[in-house]
Amino acid sequence: MFYTLTCPNCKILKRMLDEVLPQYGDKFQLKRSLANSPRGMVRTMKLGIHSVPTLLIDNKITFRSVPKKEELINTLNSLINH
């Protein structure tokens, strides 16, 4: 998850992930990257990320904003079932 400290939607997505991910055990691991840190800026440029929050799953941009909770759950479920 790419985020910034001042982004209100980033806080919403983080809270949603904290709520949803535990039901998947160790299938998914939340890694956060501060988009406006020196290291984060390099990664965002390489990946073509221009806004936050941006959520990557398996190094692919999956959401460029806060998804609906059921949309997030459906996406995670579809990845497990493949």
Overview of this structure, please?
The protein has helices at residues 8-20, 38-47, 69-80; strands spanning 2-3, 33-34, 55-57, 60-63. It has 82 residues and is an alpha+beta fold. The chain has a two-stranded parallel sheet with strand order 1-2. A two-stranded antiparallel sheet has the order 3-4. It starts with a strand and ends with a helix. The mean pLDDT is 94.
Task: Write out key terms for the chains shown.
two-stranded antiparallel sheet; 43% helix; 82 residues; single chain; alpha+beta; two-stranded parallel sheet; globular
Briefly summarize what is shown.
This protein is α+β, with helices and mostly antiparallel strands and 82 residues long. It has three helices and four strands, in the order E-H-E-H-E-E-H. The mean pLDDT is 94.
Q: How does the helix and strand content classify structurally?
A: alpha+beta
Give me the number of helical elements: 3
- Give me the side-by-side strand order of the main sheet: 1-2
- Helicity range: 40-55%
Query: Rounded to an integer, what's the Rg over CA atoms?
Result: 12 Å
The main β sheet shows up as: 2 strands, parallel
What best-fitting shape do the alpha-carbon axes yield?
A: globular
Average pLDDT works out at 94
DSSP strand count = 4
| Ends distance | 22 Å
Portion in beta strands? 5-15%
Please provide the ordered H/E string of secondary-structure elements: EHEHEEH
Low-confidence stretches: none
